[in-house]
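Data deposition worksheet. Section B asks for the primary sequence of the deposited chain exactly as it was used as input, without tags or linkers unless they were present during the calculation. Section C holds the resulting structure in token form. Section D is free text for depositor observations; keep each observation to a single sentence. Incomplete worksheets are returned to the depositor.
Section A, Depositor: J.P.
Section B:
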Amino acid sequence: MSTSILMNRTRSQILRFLIRSGPSSPGVLASGLHASRATVRRHLLVLESAGCVQALADERYSAHASVVECQLIDLAAQYSLLTPPTELPRDQD
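Section C:
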């Protein structure tokens, strides 16, 4: 998964909305996030392709906190492998 998928503000807001409020349609999400329906649909497609949200039969989308949490853990693990640890400054005695 690309790190940009979960690090985008709108996608993060969509995930939080779906986890807190339950399955919602793109129209309800757009209204709740003060975004256009087209923008929300575009982000939902990205989140769906990444496995973060699921499209339901009634044109609504859902997200489950446990699935998103697992993906965030994977993202954190990938990030820690890519970023060398930094040394903390030593106290001068």
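Section D:
The CA atoms of residues 2 and 78 lie 10 Å apart.
The mean pLDDT is 83.
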